[in-house]
Structures are given as C-alpha cells and as structure tokens.
Design brief:
By secondary structure, the chain is mainly alpha-helical. It contains 18 helices and no strands. The longest helix has 39 residues, at 6-44.
Length: 488
C-alpha cells in the first residue's frame, strides 16, 4: 500500500478540517431551511399528505438501489487517482441504470400500483422523482471528483441551491392548499437547479465508455458496497413501503412525520461529517495512528452536538404539541417521535464507525452488521406493532439501536479506538439535561414562556456539566482544529 508523505498528510488534515467547518456551517444552513419548511408544512399538511409523500419516497428508495452498483463509492475509495476511462465508464453505467429506473417508474404508474393507496397525486409525485434520476446522473462524476479532492466547500453549494428552490416552492404551494401535490413542481425544479449549479462549479468532459478493465476493478469493491446498500434498503425503504401498504394512511403519516423530524439532528451532524470522513479516511488507510485520531475526533464532536439536541427534542415535543393549536393533530405521534429520536443517539456512534470500515475496505464486517439489523427490523417490528400499534415501529428502532455496540467491537479489532473516553462526558451532560427537563415538566407545559425557560434551563445544564467535566478536552480538541486550519 502506498503511503502518503508528511506533506500530503498535512494537506489531507488541513483540507479535512477546513472542509468540515465549511461543510458543517453550510449544512447547518440547509437543515435550518428544512426545519423551517417542516414547521410550516406540519401546520398546513394533514397526516395523509405526509403519508402520500412518504409512501412514494419509499418506492423511489427501493428503485434507487438498482440505479447504482457501488461504482461511485469505489471511485472515492480508490487509492490511486481514477482515469478518464474510470470516470466515463461509471457515468455510462449510471446513465443506463437511471433510464431503466425511469422506465420502471412508468410501469408502476401505468399499472396503478401506487394510486390504489395514494390516489392520482402519488403517480405524479413518482413521475417527478423518476425524471430526476437521469438528471442526477449528470452530477455523479463532478461530485466524485470534488469528494476525492476534499473540496467540500464547493460540494455543498449545489445542495444549498437545491434546498432553497425545493422548500421555497413547497412552502408556497402548501400555503396555497396544494396538499401533497406541492411536491411535484418542487422536485422538478430542485433536480434541474442542482445539475446547473454543479455543472458550473465543476465542469468535466462528459463522455461515454464501457471499459471492461475499469469496470471489473471498480466492481470488486462496488458490488460488496452495493450489497450492503441493498440490505440497508430492505431494512429501511422496503420495510417502510410494506408498512405504508398495510398501515392506514393516517397512521403511516404519523410514523413518517415522527421519522422525518427525528432525522434532522442526524442529517446535521452525522451525515455532514460522513460526507467528509469517507474520502478522508480512505486517504488515511496507510496511517493507522492518524486514522484512529481522526475517528476519535469525529466521535467527540458529533456526540458533543447531537446528544443535547436529541435529548432536548425528546423532552419538549409533548409540551410543544400541546401549546401550539395547529400542531395538536400530531399528538398521537409523540411516542413515535421520542423513540425514533433516542434511537439516533446510537446511530451517532455506529454510523461513523461503519463508515470507517467501508472507507478502509473492510466491507465484509459492515455486511455482517447490516444482515443482523435487517433481520431484526423485519422480525421485531411486526411483533411490537401487534402489541403497541404504529408506535411499535419506532420502539423497535430504539431497541435495535443498542446492537450498534457491535460496530465498536469490529473497528476495535483493527484500531484501538477509545469510544467511551471521547463520549462519556457528553453522555453525562445529556443525562443532566434529562433530569432537569423531567423535574420541571409540569412547569414547561403551562405556557410558551415557561417552555422557553425550560429549554434554556436544560441547555445551561448541559453546557455547565460539559464544562465541569470536559473543559480541558474541549479546549484541546478545538485548539487542535484551529492549529490545523492555520497550517499551510
């Protein structure tokens, strides 16, 4: 394995840190846009509207698997710089697969398989998403090139353009009482805007090729990566699609709403970091000590941010829904929201670790985990639905999340990472939040002013506890990031 020189390592560190700060700040902006959008949509949409869109996106989620055979991940993970043949072969295969998905969507629409549950609006949303597939192929190679060169500041710009266009149209039409149909023009405009923005930022010489040697080399990693993705889609999209078929649309709408809200902290922290760590960890494969330090630093900052957000959301969702009249319709989803949100806590640790295994080529270990999680989801969730109704979906997710401790075990077989050392302070501070929040709940439920006071109190509890037990390591980690940013 070819090792990087000290100068190259320094450049990787600098690009990663600068990229992380830049990417996180822009991701925060994106998540705020999405959060504002969901706040407004929750007031104007009914549970059935969320159910319709949720059901259609599960169909698309299944089809997405067949539009990718892991070539993009293989190009990012590849140790040597990909050739033009590699890029064009990947683009050609992706384009052909996306056209097949488009045709598959047309078949679903023609057979009326979706409209039986969602009505005509579901077909139109599916068509809009189908059109976005070939368009998204045009973004594949520029995105890969930006990730390989750790140029995350440019990578996030098209996402900002897409999000602003999507949510602006969606909110405007929701206010005008379009219902779920508001997603149709929003999806189409988002697709076009993203392609135009990325093409301007990272133009490349588009060409078609099917080089057998390139394809064979990339598939060696890509197929395993895609099997892992296939299991993830069976666990998530296919299972939620089955739920959408068998659960009443209103109940599925509650599940979809709770799941959507609970994912915002995850998307802000974990997903933002993963976009950077996968290509970065791939570049550090030959430097175990540097890789271990990068993993531990990622876990420290992810949990530092996400733990208080998750606890705060779980504590205040009930009084929030009770105090805002337009949100009262979502009260039946309270427990689902709390269970989904708390399950994200384990994901904040396990996902970066499984991402590490993928980045260093240990895809077989990730496959073992995904097989287990898929089996548990399909076995445990129906049982809990039988006993607890639609809330059983989220309760199963919480129960299964505790098995994520195995991801720690697999990574520790390769690298002596210190997970507890870099997360116990955040855990303790989050528990202090929970104590303060629960003890004062009777006050937080009285009115909005008390609710705001409650949020401030638990926030002070987290910051105070974290500072008391973790001020030294916090200063150390922050200073290490700042020193890297200043290095040339």
């Amino acid at each position: 394995m070819r090792s990087n020189t000290p100068a190259q390592l320094l450049d990787i560190k600098r690009r990663s840190v600068v990229g992380a700060v830049s990417y996180f700040s822009r991701s925060l902006f994106l998540q705020m846009i999405g959060l504002v959008s969901v706040v407004i949509l929750s007031a104007f949409f009914n549970p059935e509207d969320f159910g319709v869109y949720g059901l259609v996106t599960q169909v698309i989620g299944i089809l997405v698997f067949f539009s990718d055979i892991g070539l993009a991940a293989a190009l990012i993970q590849k140790k040597d710089e990909p050739t033009t043949k590699d890029y064009r072969t990947t683009f050609t295969v992706q384009l052909l697969l996306s056209l097949l998905i488009f045709l598959a969507c047309l078949v679903v629409i023609a057979l009326g398989l979706l409209s039986q549950k969602t009505g005509p609006v579901g077909n139109w949303i599916l068509l809009a998403l189908a059109i976005s597939f070939p368009l998204a192929t045009l973004k594949t190679i520029p995105s890969i090139q930006l990730e390989r060169h750790l140029d995350f500041s440019k990578l996030i710009i098209p996402q900002i353009v897409e999000q602003i266009a999507f949510h602006l149209i969606l909110i405007t039409l929701a206010i005008k009482s379009w219902g779920a149909a508001a997603y149709i023009p929003a999806i189409l405009v988002r697709s076009v805007a993203g392609v135009v923005a990325l093409s301007i930022l990272k133009p490349w010489s588009i060409g078609l090729a099917l080089n057998k040697e390139s394809l064979k080399s990339l598939l060696n990693f890509g197929v395993k990566f895609q099997i892992n993705d296939f299991l993830a889609r069976i666990k998530d999209q296919l299972f939620f699609l089955v739920l959408g078929i068998f659960l009443p649309l209103r109940q599925f709408g509650y599940v979809q709403w709770a799941k959507t809200w609970s994912m915002y902290p995850y998307n802000l922290t974990v997903n933002s970091v993963l976009a950077i760590t996968f290509p970065t960890f791939s570049r550090l494969q030959g430097h175990p000590e540097k890789l271990q330090r990068a993993i531990e630093k990622s876990l420290f900052f992810i949990t530092l941010v996400i733990f208080p957000i998750l606890l705060g959301m779980s504590l205040f969702i009930k009084p929030l829904l009770a105090l805002i009249p337009s949100y009262a319709k979502w009260q039946p989803a309270t427990f689902s929201f709390i269970f989904f949100t708390l399950s994200i806590g384990w994901s904040a640790i396990s996902t970066p670790l499984t991402n590490t295994l993928n980045a260093i080529g240990e895809i077989n270990k990730t496959l073992k985990l995904m097989v287990m999680w898929t089996a548990l989801t399909w076995i445990l969730t129906p049982i809990l639905i039988y006993f607890y109704g639609f809330n059983g979906v989220a309760l199963a997710a919480l129960a299964i999340s505790f098995t994520s401790v195995l991801s720690v075990k697999y990574v520790r077989e390769i690298l002596p990472i210190r997970v507890w050392e870099h997360t116990w302070r955040q855990t303790l501070a989050a528990l202090m939040m929970a104590v303060i929040g629960v003890l004062g709940m009777r006050y937080w439920e009285q009115n909005m002013w008390w609710l705001i006071c409650g949020m401030a109190s638990v926030g002070v509890g987290y910051i105070g506890t974290m500072w008391l037990f973790g001020s030294e390591i916090l200063k150390k980690e922050v200073l290490s990031l700042l020193s890297v940013r200043r290095e040339k």
